[in-house]
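User: Hello! I'm new to structural biology and keep hearing that structure can be predicted from sequence alone. Could you demonstrate with DNA binding domain-containing protein, excisionase family? Please show me the input and the output so I can see what each looks like.

Assistant: Of course. The first part below is the input, the amino acid sequence of DNA binding domain-containing protein, excisionase family. The second part is the output, the predicted structure written as tokens.
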Amino acid sequence: MQPVNVTQRKPPARAMIPAEEKLLVSRGEAAQLLSISQRGLDYLIANHKLPTRRIGGRVLVPVADLRRYARGDHPERIVA
């Protein structure tokens, strides 16, 4: 018997771009960039303090809006 030649597929490659150079980041990356929890970020999104973009099923946050938010003063607590 001859061995069966089976080629294995590799998963698609993902570009490793630093978050600071991306235009959009995931909610987890956005929370890390702001040094807050993901739940805190979700409160900011729900209260329309941070805009989001949807691509497919993913919720992404524009880095420019994260920087704008980080430059401001926010003495109030992050709660719903």
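User: So the tokens describe the shape?

Assistant: Right, they're a compact way of writing down the 3D structure. Reading them back into a model, for example: The chain has a mean pLDDT of 86.
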